[in-house]
Specification:
It is a single chain. By secondary structure, the chain is mainly alpha-helical. It folds into 2 domains: 1-36; 45-87. It is 84% helix and 0% strand. The longest helix has 31 residues, at 6-36.
Length: 87
């Protein structure tokens, strides 16, 4: 059973395949646990809300640049965005 033994190589590869299958099964189980946790959405609400408000502020800035400052349309659109995004 030297280094060129095909049975030893087959056994080594079978062990490696079994290890990777076990790793995959473990990862699937971990992801299922993380996916099904009821507390995660609540934890993410703050970040979601901050991203939403940042997007609204960017919209307001774009509208201001496009429409011009102190215009009635700008004021109407910006007010609508602020109401929509609660900022």
């Amino acid at each position: 059973m030297g280094k060129d033994d095909p049975l030893a190589e087959i056994n080594r590869l079978e062990k490696e395949v079994a290890m990777w299958k076990a790793n995959h099964a473990d990862m699937v189980n971990r992801n299922a646990i993380l996916r099904d946790r009821p507390d995660l959405p609540v934890d993410r609400l703050g970040a979601y809300e901050r991203a939403r408000q940042e997007a609204a502020k960017e919209c307001i800035a774009i509208i201001s640049d496009l429409v011009g400052h102190d215009g009635i349309y700008e004021k109407m659109l910006c007010a609508k965005i602020k109401r929509r995004f609660f900022i």
